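Milestone M4 deliverable, item 7.
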Amino acid sequence: MTKQTLIAATFCFVLTGCQSLTSEQDQAATQATNEQNSATSNLDADMIDANLTNEAEDSLVYPLDTRDVALSPAVIDDIPLPEEVAEIDTNKAEAPIKPVVEDVAPEPLPPIDLWQRMQAGFALDLELNKPRISSQLKWFVSHPSYLDRVSRRGSRYLHYIVEELEKANLPLEIALLPIVESGFDPFGYSHGRASGPWQFIPSTGRMYGLDQDWWYDGRRDIVGSTRAAIAYLTRLNKMFDGDWLHALAAYNSGEGRVARAIKRNKNAGKPTDFWSLKLPKETRAYVPKLLALGKLFKNPEKYNYTLREMPNEPYFEIVNIGGQIDLAQAAEMAGISIDEVYLLNPGFNQWATSPTGPHRLLIPVDKAKTFRSRLVSIPADERVTWVRYTVDSGDNLALIAKQHNTTVNVLQDVNKMSSTLIRVGQQLMIPVAGSKIESYTLSSHQRLLAKQNRSPSQNRVKINYTVKSGDSFWKISQKYKTTSKQLARWNNMGIKDPLFAGQKLVVWLKSEKRINNTSRSVTKKIIYTIRSGDSLAKVAGKFRVKLADIKKWNPKVTSQKYVQPGDRLTLLINVVAG
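Output delivered:
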């Protein structure tokens, strides 16, 4: 039998899985089997070994009874086809060849809990044992209610922060940094003028694109400030050659200060690791705080702490609003409270988003679809309430702005005015809140009022002070025997914040000290008329007197079961200068 007949028989078995040939080909195959040793010697030994390495895999490709004569595709391509093969009916259906199935391990499911996701991304050295870390860890472990509180505050923002850190390939312990910085308070404001969850000072904020004006403070914007913090930390880490402890210290006290401390130690032949550097007291505690939190949140069971449940899913969606919108209207459209709008969008200072942007709102995931559909149906010019004001004799822009809870700059921008000059009869368009201004409870103005009205302790008397030209925190604090830091805190300000003439400040004095230091009478008799909604307790709180004293001063009125609108109370009030 010829060699061509042998090849034709082999080719048929390999490509078509034929089980029979012509009688002549059968005889050729039989003869080929008898001559197997000599034929096999002409094949590449390595190729044969390769065909036999995986019997299970081969059985899916080749018929079992053709294994000994199966040729590789490369060998088949080199063999000229005989006439017999060329005449095979190609329209005849071939037996299907089963694909090779490889065992592939299924991808692991993402963690259900966000804490687990964070723990998997922790990358700092949490095995460090330093006294400063132990001290901070002891404090956190002994204050579980504080950890619960900051976790609850952070639950709105944490998933977004984790995702942004993962995109930037940063250690996920940094997601805990807002606890150290602000306790996850988006409205947090420090005596050093740092603001927001990541506590940017004004200059650094502007350096990283966080605008700050009457309408908007990007340092409190969750999206903007998180991206800025990541950019800043990435740059610091690169500046300090990948040393995260140096980078974190620089984030707190400034890169220049840390760089000088490193240089000083180098020149003195001392170690330059974070623990050996001479840094401010706050910074020396700052880095250990984050490491202590990392230790605790990585292994809470070890410290007998139960993490607050935190689903591994987004809390909010970022919705493009395309322009300015009243925040009370946005809350109504989304079906959420006005407080929730402010907590998700704390960058907006006033009753509406900024007319110059950013034109986005963070809306809870389950409310975003409803909000988008309603937003589309409202024309842009109906998303903010406007009033038309006619300038009267004696008006000026500052007075008009104050009457409408806005600023001179806003009036100039809206009305395309290049100066503050106005004329009688001129008409101005003024954006105004669509709801009562008091309902925007977390606007900048309402937060300030709440802070100023909150007594820091008992036995304090509040006085109002109007800033005069030439005043400073130090000058005012000296007048009232307090400190600049305390005065600034009472007014939700930093000690470096500028003061301007006419600004209203509050001073909380210790009542007994003020009474002892004055020679004139401090008691004044006033008559108060009960209004709708009043109660004796409410009146007592309003005038800071004891409920028992009110009853003693007004036996006839207080003998009734309830006070009624129109009832008149006699009150003896301590009067303090100012």
